[in-house]
Amino acid sequence: MKDTPKYQGLRKQLVEKLRSKGITSNKVLKVIENTPRHYFMDQGLLNYAYEDQAYPIDADQTISQPYTVAFQTQILDVNINDRILEIGTGSGYQTAILLGLSKNIFTIERQHKLFKKTQRLLKDLNLRPKKIIFGDGYNGLPENAPFEKILVTAGAPEVPKELLKQLKVGGKLVIPVGINEQEMTCFTRTSIKTFNKETFGKFKFVPLLNNKI
Ligand code: SAH
């Protein structure tokens, strides 16, 4: 796979579109400009890589819409040394965006086929999360907690308690909450016992599943 001037040009246009839709973080826009989304798409859909839309990937899942990736990443407010847990590795595109902002990334995927495929792809691209794990993100990753940031990229019917527990004080959990559609929600841990909750409007995600794998 390679990057080309054509794809780079399309990425610049995508970044302008995201800016016009209200994304303001230059840090986030820069990493989107520098990350080839076509590496993470199904081969048959390469021509659509820089459309601002979600597309199917393996196991009936989707690669998130660029606007959604930008929006969630902007709310997450990543600092270079943040230890970050992503739930829902999927295509690996959001993982790659996070790796452009911090080297301390942990990611979990529950679909085995996607896990295997994306694990190989990230390796081939020389992108190295600290861990990429096959498992159920509902449980978080207690052995590597606490995290400064946790990002959930699937729609959660309810907020998993374990994820709140695994946040550092001052840390943030960004999670789309709801069943048919989701409210983008950010919990900031303000003390051991208290959380501040903010909401950012409606989105549509594939479901966060917690039945047995
Ligand atoms: N970040 C991905 C989005 C993929 S869609 C991307 O940019 O491509 C959401 C992903 O969450 C899917 O791959 C789905 O299999 C995964 N998922 C759903 N429930 C999960 C769970 N309980 N634990 C971990 N991953 C889960």
Report on the architecture of this protein.
The protein has 213 residues and is of the alpha/beta class. It has one domain: Rossmann fold (3-Layer(aba) Sandwich). Helices cover 29% and strands 24% of the residues. The protein is built from 6 helices and 9 strands, in the order ααββαβαβαββαβββ. The protein has helices at 5-20, 26-34, 66-76, 93-99, 112-124, 161-165; strands spanning 55-56, 62-63, 84-87, 105-109, 131-134, 147-152, 167-177, 182-189, 195-203. Strands 5-4-3-6-7-8-9 form a 7-stranded mixed beta sheet. The chain has a two-stranded antiparallel ribbon with strand order 1-2. A hairpin with a 5-residue loop joins β8 and β9 (195-203). α1 packs antiparallel against α2. The radius of gyration is 16 Å and the shape is globular. The model has no long low-confidence stretch (mean pLDDT 96). The structure holds S-adenosyl-L-homocysteine. S-adenosyl-L-homocysteine is lined by residues 61-64, 87-88, 90-91, 93-94, 108-111, 114, 136-138, 153-154, 206, 208-210.
Concise overview:
This protein has 213 residues and is α/β, with parallel strands linked by helices. The protein has helices spanning 5-20, 26-34, 66-76, 93-99, 112-124, 161-165; strands at 55-56, 62-63, 84-87, 105-109, 131-134, 147-152, 167-177, 182-189, 195-203.
Q: Looking at CATH, which topology would you report?
A: Rossmann fold
The appropriate CATH architecture is 3-Layer(aba) Sandwich
> What topology, given as strand order, has the largest sheet?
5-4-3-6-7-8-9
Total strands: the figure is: 9
Instruction: Tell me the overall shape.
Output: globular
What Rg, in angstroms, do the CA atoms define?
16 Å
Secondary-structure content class: alpha/beta
Integer average pLDDT: 96
The unreliable regions are none
> What compounds sit in this structure?
S-adenosyl-L-homocysteine
- The proportion of residues forming helix, as a percent range, comes to 25-40%
How many separate domains make up the residues? 1
The CATH homologous superfamily: Vaccinia Virus protein VP39
Whole-Å distance between the termini? 32 Å
